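Below is the data:
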Amino acid sequence: MRISTNTLFDSGIQKITGLQSDQARLQGQISTGKRFTTPSDDPVAAARVLEISQQKEMNATYANVRTVAKTNLETIEANLTNITNLMVAAQSTLVGAGNGAYSNLERSFVATDLKNSLEALVGMANGKDAYGNYLFSGFKSETAPFTANTTGATYNGDSNVQQLQVDSQRLMDVSVSGSQLFLANGNDVFATLNDIVNLLNTPITDATTQANFSNGLATAITKMQSSVDNIMNVRASVGSKLNELDNLDISGQDRDLQYASSLSDIQDLDYAEALSEFSKNQTIMEAAQKSFSSTAQLSLFDFI
């Protein structure tokens, strides 16, 4: 086999160029701390990094959505606490109104107290969140859900509830409609309070009016208990969702750590190994350069 001078030069240059390319690659890895700086360096690993990164970003998105969901539900829970306290107090007042020793005037005092409770309840039912949106209007968040009238209050909202995707497999209701809270099962708490106020303001003058009062009071107490139970059930549901969001946050944090660990395993550089390889390549390249320099000064005629 014949070896020309050009062949010797080409071989030496290719060797040195290859070593320089390796050094450049190692320098890039050391400076970035990554095993590969472009997808072409390791296509399979790069594809896996992209996949895990997308999953990690989606996990972060769900975490942000859960923060919004928590804010909504905590605001609702705070309002429901106040509503529950008011309704339980009104319920207690209702029971006390059955005191047979009360005169018509004393019953009118109770009526005034319950009328104030009715007005306060309408105000609470028209509560807003931190952004000025009505909490219990369904999708009509810019419309006050209730308007007081002569029979109690009219509902202006709808029955829709806001839903948020709080995890890959969990779509959660994060709002409560006014109809769900105050008009459940055809039991209108505003009408109940309004009716009992009118009843308490109606003087008892004979056995018929006494019977009407007793029957009306018993009906109002039953309806009020049903309304309180409904509010408590809604509150329990809200509390359960808040607990679920806490658990989803913990799971999400665990997944985030797993994604970060997987990314580190795939793309993070082993500095000790890289520096050792860089030093070894540097020594080889210096030797190759010296060898090539010596060879370049010769020709095949020197060997004849």
Remarks:
- The chain has a mean pLDDT of 84.
